[in-house]
Amino acid sequence: MTPPPRNGTYAAVSEDPARAMALPGSAYSDPFVFAAERERVLRGGWIPVARLDQLAAEGDYACSDVAGAPVVALRGKSGTLRVLSSVCRHRGMPVVSGEGRTEVLTCPYHLWRYGLDGALLSAPAMQGSEVFNPKDCRLPELRSEAWGGWLWVNANGGAKPLADTLSDLSARLEPLEPERMVTIGVIELESPWNWKVMVENFLESYHHIGSHAGTLQLTHPGLGTFEGDGSDAFTLIENPPADPQGRGFVVAGVFPLGLMFFTEDEAPVGAWYQMDRLLPDRFRLRIHLLAAPALAGLPGFAEGYLEQLNAVHAEDIAACEGVQAGVTSPEYRPGPLSVLERPIWRFHRHLALRMNGE
């Protein structure tokens, strides 16, 4: 049984955005709060686990972790997309890791073999067991849905259909064609702060004026940014350019963990911030660089984009490390949120509702 959040962690989240406050320190440090979030928010929501271009051909797979559960997203026979538990039904060893292409999933521990549909194909030396039944040893399949060029998973199977909840976001992103973008590089980092610190930092461009004073602030001033649309399921932040002849970019958050941005150039680029292996005070971050197909093959383009994104994220690392140190201090007290942090208030409302079982 999942323990309740301590000290009313989400009880003070306001229904009125004008009265929005930051979360208390327990939200970022209490293991009981994290355990409840994992069960009620992360397992109950839609989590992106792979880009569809990673799963282009039969047998392509990409491994991830959803609320503490190792999973593998793959394309099976006849092009069927699936998300399976990657935990072997024998002794619990993950049957596959990383990403690649395979015809079967073979556990490296005792060589139990599974098909791309999760069915057990073979298990050495099990003839003497009176309780072994291959039909009972199928890898469980998790509910999944393709949207926006990603494969998403809902671990507990109880969420509303994803596309239905994101129709307004789909309409805003349609001109940018995110579903056609291809992955041109990945930055992988261990991130020693609570997962919500990352989400909150991503969901406001107010901090351009401080953390990104020499980079994004010069091109897309923080005080000119605003939430363009939002609901209980998502938020979208508009980032107009400083130069009236320039191009803006949009930041989108699909709650709880779908973080992405896209430029509004004629040939747009974007990024997906994938967060997995979550613990109360850390997680693995993989930043997937995305680009329109016309850009993907240009010599030096991927390298230049990688360098640029690395530099901006280094500024965010300093901010997130500082915030984690601050919110876990005994002297921390939540402060009021700016109107420019409206998307954070919306994220907090999502958390409060889910933690209350709504």
Structure, explained:
- By secondary structure, this protein is of the alpha+beta class.
- The protein folds into two domains: 14-45 and 161-355, Alpha-Beta Complex (Naphthalene 1,2-dioxygenase Alpha Subunit, Chain A, domain 1); 51-154, Rieske Iron-sulfur Protein.
- The chain is 22% helix and 28% strand.
- It is built from eight helices and 17 strands.
- It has a seven-stranded antiparallel beta sheet, with no helix packed on it.
- Strand 12 (226-230) and strand 13 form a beta hairpin.
- It is globular.
- The model has no long low-confidence stretch (mean pLDDT 96).
Cα separation of the termini: 18 Å
Percent of residues in helices: 10-25%
> CATH topology of the largest domain, anyone?
Naphthalene 1,2-dioxygenase Alpha Subunit, Chain A, domain 1
The arrangement of helices and strands along the chain is: HEEEEEEEEEEHHEHHEEEEEEHHH
CATH class of the largest domain: Alpha Beta
User: How many beta-strand runs?
Assistant: 17
User: Treating each run of at least 4 consecutive H or I residues as one helix, how many helices?
Assistant: 8
Q: Strand fraction band? A: 25-35%
**Uncertain segments:** none
Helix and strand layout, with pairings?
Blueprint lengths: L30 H12 L3 E6 L8 E7 L2 E7 L5 E5 L13 E3 L3 E2 L6 E2 L5 E3 L18 E7 L2 E5 L7 H4 L1 H7 L8 E10 L3 H8 L13 H4 L6 E5 L3 E6 L9 E6 L3 E6 L5 E11 L2 E10 L1 H4 L4 H27 L14 H14 L3
Summarize the structure.
The protein has 358 residues and is of the alpha+beta class. It contains eight helices and 17 strands. The protein is 22% helix and 28% strand.
